[in-house]
Each structure stands twice: as structure tokens, then as C-alpha cells.
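sorry for the late reply, my laptop died twice this morning and i had to redo everyting from scratch. anyway the thing you sent over, i finally got around to it. pasting the sequence first so we're on the same page, its 272 residues, then the predicted structure underneath. double check i copied it right bc i was rushing
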Amino acid sequence: MKKVDLHIHSMYSDGTYTVNEIIERAKENQVELISICDHNCIEAYDELENKKLDVKILPGVEIDSVDDYIDFHILGYNFDIHDQQFKKFIEENNSRLELVNVKLLEKVIRDHPALSLQEYQNFSYDRKKGGWKLLHYFANKGICETIWDGFEIYARYHHSYAEANFPSIDEVCDQIHKANGKAILAHPGKTIPYHTLNEFKTYLERLLEHPFDGVECYYSSHSEKITNICLGFCHKKKRMITCGSDCHGEFEKTKMDQLNISGDFLQLKDFI
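ok and here's the structure:
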């Protein structure tokens, strides 16, 4: 099997590429199987429906959940895109995601009274530039020089996405399964807090007690040691093995296909 990239973001969330641009870049890089996994959003698949494609696209989404006051991302794959209950669940989670930004804005307004919630709500930006609305609003108002500088504002105000009322890991997995999809733990090496490899192993083993179907073992920022630990657990527990660049187009440095992973290295028997 040719190359695979199952974690790509479009301009429907915080990426810079249109759906067509993602498909064209996949073809240029000889990536045979892809998945667009926007944050709490599956609008890309409305655009793709009934469209003749030269690349195989697996329905996907990246959903926020909270466990131990940590925002864990869960990748849902191959679900029924017409499942209304699942669509509603995703939309509600997207609203929770935006509420995190609104709460940060309320904090910042105390120090910058020229900002206003009403102005923010009416604000629009070029989605092709990536990122999200609040970053662009801060840059537009001169609170930060660039949208990338806006990340520092979250840290300065000790504002975390874990503060949102995101559902539990079990609830997210359950909703994905009810929509006939598979639930995959996204980039554990990026999310799990650890100082030593043994700490990482212990935490990952605890996480995999939840009803995950697999792990995103191959990921752009995973070290070889982290990747091998993830692979070891998946082989031992017979879980699915996926890969993803987490490409956001020009918004971040990761590029589609930078992992150069063939489907032969993955466990995707339920997808292909």
C-alpha cells in the first residue's frame, strides 16, 4: 500500500488549505489514503459528498475531551457522516471550544478596555490564514503583533482548554462508536505529561484502559522511543495503529506526508 496521512486540518477549523488543495497536495505527494480531521467539525465532508475523488478519504474528526484536567484529543474515523446524534455532539463540543476563547477574551478585556465581546462576535477574518478567530482578533486590535504571538496570551492569563466543560474520554469514545466509527488516541507523546519514558509508559497504559480502538503511534513530533512504546502497546493489546502529520497548511510547520509512512506499517484492517 502507498503512503498514508490520517491527520490533516482544513480551513474549516484552523488549517490554511481548502479541501481541494488538500486533495491536490495528497496527489502530488503520492499519498493514497488521507483523513481530514478538523477540530470538532466535519463540514469538510459536506463538501466532499458525491464528489468524484482521485484520493481515498477516510471520514475523520478530532474531538476534545478532558481527563485528569488535561485536554486529550481523540480522533474519530470511518463514522457515519449522516448520523444526526453524532453531528449534534460534535457541534456542541465546538461550541464548548469557542467558549474557552470567549472566557479568555473576558479576562483580557479587563486590561484592554478597547476590546469588546460584541465587536469580537461581529469580527470576521480570512480563513485561508489559518488559526482561529480570537488569534486574528487580538492581532487586528494590536494586542499581539502576529496571530502566532497570540498563543502567549493564553499562557500569560493561565488559560487552558482543560477549563472547558469537554466530555470525558469514555463519552467521546462512546459517541464515536455509536456512529459506527473507531476511536483513536491522538498524539500521546504530545499530550501525556511525563519526564521519563517509564512515566510515559505508565500513563499510556492507564489511558488505554479507556475504550480506544487504537493509537496514533506515528506522529510528526514523536521521538523514535515514544513511537516504539506506542507500537508495543498496540501490538500487545491488538489495537489499531495509525499515523498523522497534523498538517495545518501554512499555519504550522508540519507538512503532509512528512512522516513518509506506508500503510504496510499500520494496522488499518477495519478501514481498508
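The mean pLDDT is 95.
thats about all i looked at so far, will dig more tmrw
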